Amino acid sequence: MEEEAKLFKALADPFRVRLAVLLALRGETCVCELMKALGEPQYKVSRHLAVLRSAGIVVARRQGAWMYYRLDHPRCVAAKQLYDAFRAYDRDPRVLTMLKRLAEKTHPDACSGDNATGAAPGPGRLRLLFLCTGNSCRSQMAEGWARALLGDRVEVWSAGIEKHGLNPLAVRVMAEAGVDISRQWSKTVDELPDQPFDWVITVCGHAAEHCPVFPAATRKVHAGFEDPPKLAASATSPEEALRHYRRVRDEIRDFVRNMPENLECLWQLTLKGALS
């Protein structure tokens, strides 16, 4: 009964059911087309597809820069019956609306849009990953700033060596600056979509020392920032604690604002360090 338990657990979320229904009716579909059909950003669609993949419900393949998903062969009787039930939704008005959106854009080369909403990257966009220990504060701020300031030029993610949950004070001070990161979530590198990154930027020393291995084409640099929760631990008032968060928030903003130039400078320093 283990396969059945994984199946039902993965499909307990309505969003993942909609994904499965679309794949059952349409067959193999690019992630950008699923974004179009559901009206949701890439990071949300990819996150839920990763859950379905881990449960053995969907499989993926890469073609160029794009990931294509389809339902896997059913691993148990319950899966086969569910997939058949999904195909019976071909007359459901809600499903018809999603299929109509899919019909408006049938080839991934047509993908375009603002990456601040999670759209698939266009030609020349840099793929960035901000990495810290728990993906709770600094890397989340960096992701938020990159989306806000460089959204038309980058595809950006953040992750941690571990995951400690999204820090509510980080959400608060970013909102004060006009950047909403409340829909971001804490995750590890293993939970990211299977895609290459141009740059991995570690924002804390522990992450720099324990950074996972990435393909040789990925450039890894370190841009260290102080840890707001650690700084705030000695604060004598909530306002004093927030001042630490705001200072680091602004330092990260200034760093991100001057990318990719800052990245190139760090890369040259990294090369000099490796050769010395």
Can you describe this structure?
With 276 residues, this protein is of the alpha/beta class. It has 2 domains: 109 residues, Orthogonal Bundle (Arc Repressor Mutant, subunit A); 155 residues, 3-Layer(aba) Sandwich (Rossmann fold), CATH 3.40.50. 48% of the residues lie in helices and 13% in strands. It has 12 helices and 7 strands. The protein has a 4-stranded parallel sheet with strand order 5-4-6-7. α2 packs across α5, α3 packs across α6 and α7 packs across α11. The longest helix is centred in the C-terminal third of the chain and has 20 residues.
Task: Summarize the entry for a quick read.
With 276 residues, the protein is an alpha/beta fold. Helix content is 48%, strand content 13%. It has helices at 2-10, 14-26, 31-38, 42-54, 77-87, 93-103, 138-150, 168-176, 205-209, 228-232, 238-257, 261-275, and strands at residues 29-30, 58-63, 66-71, 126-132, 154-160, 199-202, 219-222.
Q: Keywords for this structure?
A:
about 280 residues; alpha/beta; Arc Repressor Mutant, subunit A; Rossmann fold; 2 domains; four-stranded parallel β-sheet; three-stranded antiparallel β-sheet; 12 helices; 7 strands
Describe the secondary-structure layout.
Elements: H1 2-10, H2 14-26, E1 29-30, H3 31-38, H4 42-54, E2 58-63, E3 66-71, H5 77-87, H6 93-103, E4 126-132, H7 138-150, E5 154-160, H8 168-176, E6 199-202, H9 205-209, E7 219-222, H10 228-232, H11 238-257, H12 261-275
Parallel strand pairs: 4-5, 4-6, 6-7
Antiparallel strand pairs: 1-3, 2-3
Helix pairs in contact: 2-4, 2-5, 3-6, 7-11, 8-11
